[in-house]
């Protein structure tokens, strides 16, 4: 008899989260889709269910600790937690950045991961197939910085440190901790959110880059990491498009 594994995905309403939901559903996971926009995750859950997969939607703001605890209390098991909800706000230099943006980035990219991880760790440790896995979607901005990126990089460095520390603290327990750190990924909303809906500024991020990563490329790395045998811990996977050699060296055509 095979046991159906459950994956909880935060930020499943768009981009990398939605792509990973599709990927993990295809791998046979029951996927629990969470995000603030209920209509988006309900539509995706219906699409996946219609295709014969097991999928449920649960509207959740990861910065709301009480809501996260209520979600966890109603969950009947979790084998994989994909901490993907997050993003950047603004690209202002340190001298003029808005502290409110920094606070919001810390809330979602760091405290959101903390809330979800704390709430679901007991369920992950009790995984009947011994496959409890916490995945943290950080960024190459969690491993280096760039001009105008300090607020986002500080938050993603925080997510990276959380993952590193948790792996040390869980050594000897049946839960592995995986960090996926992508470079430039062309998704519909990431840059638009960063530039508060300014489409021309958002488009400039990817201008001339022949092939940025796609959400599916990142979903592929998550799908691979969480389907290794339970004793294999993929600590950190840094993935960039070929055209991006570092946070500040990008090949642009034209
Ligand atoms: O972006 P986007 P990506 N509570 O904006 C959700 C990182 N990353 O897929 O709540 C719960 O489509 C939001 O859903 P909603 C990036 O930092 C990206 O590209 O409905 N959910 C949405 O589904 C982020 O951690 C790139 O608005 C909250 C999702 O988060 C992850 O990859 C590069 C929430 C954001 O999806 C996915 O980004 C990189 C909250 N409080 C790292 N706030 C890149 N695209 O270039 C937001 O290195 N969400």
Automatic annotation (TrEMBL):
List the PROSITE patterns: ADH_SHORT
> Which GO terms fall under molecular function for this chain's record?
oxidoreductase activity, acting on the CH-OH group of donors, NAD or NADP as acceptor
What UniProt keywords apply to this chain's record, in alphabetical order?
Oxidoreductase
SUPFAM superfamilies noted in UniProt: NAD(P)-binding Rossmann-fold domains (SSF51735)
Q: Gene3D superfamilies, from UniProt? A: NAD(P)-binding Rossmann-like Domain (3.40.50.720)
- UniProt-listed SMART domains: PKS_KR
Q: Which Pfam families match?
A: adh_short
- The Ketoreductase domain covers 5-188
InterPro entries named in the record: KR_dom (IPR057326), NAD(P)-bd_dom_sf (IPR036291), Sc_DH/Rdtase_CS (IPR020904), SDR_fam (IPR002347)
> Taxonomically, which superkingdom?
Bacteria
Q: Which family does it belong to?
A: Belongs to the short-chain dehydrogenases/reductases (SDR) family.
Record-given protein name: SDR family NAD(P)-dependent oxidoreductase
Organism of origin is: Streptomyces armeniacus
């Amino acid at each position: 008899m095979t046991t159906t594994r459950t994956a909880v995905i935060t930020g499943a309403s768009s981009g990398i989260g939605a792509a990973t939901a599709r990927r993990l559903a295809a791998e046979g996971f029951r996927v629990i889709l969470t995000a603030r926009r209920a209509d988006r995750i309900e539509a995706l859950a219906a699409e996946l269910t219609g295709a014969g997969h097991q999928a449920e939607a649960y509207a959740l703001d990861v910065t709301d600790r009480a809501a996260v605890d209520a979600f966890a209390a109603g969950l009947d098991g979790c084998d994989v937690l994909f901490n993907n909800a997050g993003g950047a706000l603004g690209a202002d230099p340190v001298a003029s950045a808005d502290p409110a943006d920094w606070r919001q980035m810390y809330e979602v990219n760091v405290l959101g991961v903390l809330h979800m991880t704390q709430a679901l760790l007991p369920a992950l440790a009790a995984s009947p197939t011994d496959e409890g896995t916490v995945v943290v979607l950080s960024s190459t901005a969690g491993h280096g910085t760039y001009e105008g990126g300090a607020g986002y990089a500080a938050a993603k460095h925080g997510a990276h440190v959380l993952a590193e520390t948790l792996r040390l603290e869980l050594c000897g327990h049946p839960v592995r901790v995986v960090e996926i750190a992508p470079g430039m990924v062309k998704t519909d909303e990431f840059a638009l959110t960063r530039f508060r809906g300014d489409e021309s500024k958002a488009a400039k991020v990817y201008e001339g880059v022949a092939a940025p990563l796609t959400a599916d490329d990142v979903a592929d790395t998550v799908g691979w990491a969480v389907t290794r045998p339970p004793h294999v811990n993929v600590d950190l996977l840094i993935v960039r498009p070929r055209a991006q050699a570092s946070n500040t060296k990008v090949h642009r055509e034209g």
